[in-house]
Amino acid sequence: MIDISGKTIVCGIIGDPVEHTVSPAMHNAAFAYAGLDYVYVPFQVKKEGLAEAIHGMGALNIRGLNVTIPHKVGVIPLLSELDFLAEYIGAVNTIVNHGGILKGYNTDGIGFIRSLLEEGVNPKDKNVVVVGAGGASRAITFTLVDKGASITILNRRSGMEKAVRLADEINNAFRRDVQALEFEDENLAKIMGKADILVNATSVGMIPNPEETPVESRWFRPGLLVYDIVYNPVETRLLREARQAGATTIDGLGMLVWQGAMAFEYWTGQKAPFGIMRDAASKALTIKNE
Ligand code: NAP
């Protein structure tokens, strides 16, 4: 039980819906473990209430907020400052209140990188194929290029315009020649042989459709790292088939926990207790699925 007093520092998450989030379990476990007088609460905020909620963050002296669907983009003009990666990505998932100055960050991409580093993989100079061009892909692709990886973006035909725009934005920001290709066998045949890492940044394989998979198993081989950012279920069909084909795998729980850990570090100035946060998130996901 959290012992709340007049000195307790408040953090939280804004989104709609927020019932499904595992962030309160993860952050409150971390605050308790670190002996910090902090509490983390969910706030359901409708689109029409977003501006009032952000002004309220300053007025109520809320130290930090995570931002989730549907507010990651809409929140930007309401903030005082943006971190450079959040500005490139065009989405904010973490706000820090520095004495009334509200600064926006995006910890999804850096959370992804930290989870790779934790597994002993440095993305610098690696060839990475990223499937998907949505919000999570934007965070991951910009951050991968910032960290020195060479990337190719694949997306289904209906989303190609979005994928090409994303590649153009990355190329303009970093003077690179990132390509966006249609997700089809001919293109996979051209790029998979040289790939060090394959990232699924689509929602394919997520509950309620765990029988689906975005990439057929014939593209997997020993020496390839397959990273699925879907974390529910933790072992997706993609990861199971990649493992069976001798590829190395990383599940989406690491990115989920690291993006939270980075937010924890911004709000508290302390190193996040990663293992405690991972256990709490894993337990909360299990309970949610029961
Ligand atoms: P999003 O913005 O809606 O983007 C979804 C992407 O998936 C788009 O590129 C979309 O293609 C593609 N897609 C969807 N259904 C598809 C299908 N049937 N076949 C091929 N491509 C398909 O979603 P998001 O916010 O990026 O999230 C994507 C996934 O990542 C979700 O499962 C989310 O839970 C997970 N995620 C995990 C973490 C973590 O910390 N591990 C963080 C963020 C997100 P189009 O462009 O053509 O629509």
Give a quick set of tags describing it:
single chain; 290 residues; Rossmann fold; six-stranded mixed β-sheet; globular; binds NADP nicotinamide-adenine-dinucleotide phosphate
What does this structure look like?
The chain is α/β, with parallel strands linked by helices and 290 residues long. Helix content is 39%, strand content 19%. It folds into 2 domains: 9-106 and 254-288, 3-Layer(aba) Sandwich (Rossmann fold); 109-251, NAD(P)-binding Rossmann-like Domain (Rossmann fold, 3-Layer(aba) Sandwich). The chain is built from 10 helices and 12 strands. The strands form 2 sheets. The protein has a 6-stranded mixed beta sheet, with helices on both faces. A 6-stranded parallel beta sheet has the order 9-8-7-10-11-12, with helices on both faces. The model has no long low-confidence stretch (mean pLDDT 96). The structure holds NADP nicotinamide-adenine-dinucleotide phosphate.
